[in-house]
């Protein structure tokens, strides 16, 4: 197997990228530098160019805009393997998951193409004679997308595919831990734009850098929408900054996702769900399963089984076939894991990378460690006796992204997804909390930030709503029956 640096250099060449600049990217596989990019130094210039591109792009009919996204999807299909390998090298998730991530980009492109002919508004009956009301959805303006290292390309695509069909330009501030994949995605967008012809050159721009670059962009009055994925701490800073200038925000922040395993659960299914949701992406998804709430009658059995599964997880170079879990993103992730699980086991894998064994920790509820999101593969286990108590534990955290229940009891399942059940944006039955499809709206409540991205009607966040009242009569009656005659 090539070293990450050697393989990255092949891939960068493949994408026509120089891989040089002032900001280094390291592979979590062995900690080595695998390339670098130029830092954004001209926020003002980027914002002005984004605005100019927006003014041109909004005049292109939406189904034509969809055509650009369709071509982008074709480029992604063609380069799925290469892009996935770069994702693996730069963020450390296994190849199967990296390919899944690129597939998620392709899926949202397909979704957005269909959407480009379905940006429907309502017609509304008027209370006045010879009047008609309607609602239209118009392009909004430049959209700033701030993305995280753990889904370094898919979350951008959720935002960009929708923003583009909605008639907006896009500025992307990727995580400083995954700058190279962003450059590769931009290459594929450029190829699509060339085939389309006549696309404003600055329709999609990448602004590389750290927090200061993100903040300067978010503060800029031209950024009509700031869609940010990351920690609750980041969102707490960013939200008020953007609100102060009355910009729009879409926040997708921390999760603290739970699974309830009821006495009637199909335990074989539950085990599979637990393994994927807790161990996938080395416990670094926003949807990662962090709390397992198990009925006391089956807890001993399930604990034993999960311990076995965790002990058997094949940990190592995420490019190796059979490996289920790659490295943590960096040393800092390991430090925060150790802070809550001091006896967490580090595994010898590739020198320079941080490879850990997933940890199962039994706690009494409430436990302060389990109230926080530690971005590492730690699964807390809590026992319960009554379903209401389990639902209260599910809801008893500050975050509200994803949740699930394993049960074959229809009443329990329906209760969990009802208005008095899970308080999360995502609530699943007999499926783990992670690995959502793009067709649904993605996001959650409370400290998760309240935003919804991806499918369903999430597109509405990327457009401005206009209410129109049209009078086709010869009179001017006022609403509410007001008479206003001199
Ligand atoms: C994220 O972790 O930010 O539902 C996104 C999932 C993936 C997306 C996760 N489809 O786990």
From TrEMBL:
Keyword Nuclease: no
Stored SUPFAM superfamilies: ALDH-like
EC number(s) from the headed UniProt entry: 1.2.1.3
Annotated InterPro entries: Ald_DH/histidinol_DH (IPR016161), Ald_DH_C (IPR016163), Ald_DH_CS_GLU (IPR029510), Ald_DH_N (IPR016162), Aldehyde_DH_dom (IPR015590), ALDH7A1-like (IPR044638)
Enzyme class: oxidoreductase
Top-rank taxon, per record: Bacteria
Keywords tagged on the record: NAD, Oxidoreductase
Oxidoreductase is among the record's keywords: yes
All copies of domain Aldehyde dehydrogenase, residue ranges: 23-467
PROSITE patterns the UniProt entry points to: ALDEHYDE_DEHYDR_GLU
Catalytic center residues: 252
Subunit structure: Homotetramer.
Family: Belongs to the aldehyde dehydrogenase family.
PANTHER family noted in UniProt: ALPHA-AMINOADIPIC SEMIALDEHYDE DEHYDROGENASE
Name the record gives this protein: aldehyde dehydrogenase (NAD(+))
Source organism: Sphingomonas arvum
């Amino acid at each position: 197997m090539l070293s990450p640096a050697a393989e990255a250099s092949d891939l960068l060449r493949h994408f026509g990228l120089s891989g040089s600049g002032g900001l280094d990217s390291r592979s979590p596989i062995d900690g080595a530098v695998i390339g670098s990019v130029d830092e954004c130094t001209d926020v003002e210039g980027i914002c002005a160019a984004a605005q100019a591109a927006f003014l041109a792009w909004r005049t292109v009919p939406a189904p034509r805009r969809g055509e650009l996204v369709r071509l982008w999807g074709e480029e992604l299909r063609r380069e799925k393997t290469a892009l996935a390998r770069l994702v693996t090298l730069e963020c450390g998730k296994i190849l199967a998951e990296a390919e899944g991530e690129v597939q998620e980009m392709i899926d949202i492109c397909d979704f957005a193409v269909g959407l480009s002919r379905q940006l429907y508004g309502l017609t509304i009956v008027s209370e006045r004679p010879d009047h008609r009301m309607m609602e239209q959805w118009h392009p909004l303006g430049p959209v700033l997308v701030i993305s995280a290292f753990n889904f370094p390309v898919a979350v951008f695509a959720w935002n960009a595919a929708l923003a583009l069909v909605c008639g907006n330009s896009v500025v992307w501030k990727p995580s400083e831990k995954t700058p190279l994949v962003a450059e590769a995605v931009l290459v594929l967008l450029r190829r699509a734009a060339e085939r389309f012809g006549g696309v404003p050159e600055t329709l999609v721009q990448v602004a590389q850098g750290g927090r200061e670059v993100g903040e300067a962009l978010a503060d800029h009055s031209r950024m009509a929408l700031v869609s940010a994925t990351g920690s609750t701490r980041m969102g707490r800073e960013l939200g008020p900054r953007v609100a102060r200038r009355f910009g729009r925000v879409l926040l997708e922040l921390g999760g603290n996702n739970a699974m309830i395993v009821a006495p009637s659960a199909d335990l074989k299914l539950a085990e599979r769900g637990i393994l994927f949701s807790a161990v996938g992406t080395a416990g670094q998804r926003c949807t990662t399963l962090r709390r397992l709430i198990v009925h006391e009658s089956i807890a001993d059995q399930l604990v034993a089984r999960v311990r076995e599964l965790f002990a058997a997880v094949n940990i190592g170079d995420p490019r190796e076939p059979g490996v289920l879990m790659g490295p943590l993103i960096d040393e800092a992730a390991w430090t925060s894991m150790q802070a809550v699980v001091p006896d967490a086991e580090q595994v010898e894998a590739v020198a320079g990378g941080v490879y850990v064994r997933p940890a199962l920790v039994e706690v009494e509820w409430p436990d302060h460690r389990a109230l926080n999101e530690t971005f590492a593969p730690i699964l807390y286990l809590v026992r319960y006796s009554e379903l209401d108590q389990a639902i209260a534990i599910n809801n008893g955290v500050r975050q509200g992204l994803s949740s699930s229940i394993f049960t074959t009891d229809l009443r329990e399942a329906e209760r969990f997804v009802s208005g008095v059940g899970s308080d999360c944006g995502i609530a699943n039955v007999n499926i783990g909390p992670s690995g959502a499809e793009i067709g649904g709206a993605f996001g959650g409540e409370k400290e998760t930030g309240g935003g919804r991205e991806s499918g369903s009607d999430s597109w509405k966040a990327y457009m401005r709503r206009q209410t129109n009242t049209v009078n086709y009569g010869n009179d001017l009656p006022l609403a509410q029956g007001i008479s206003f005659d001199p």
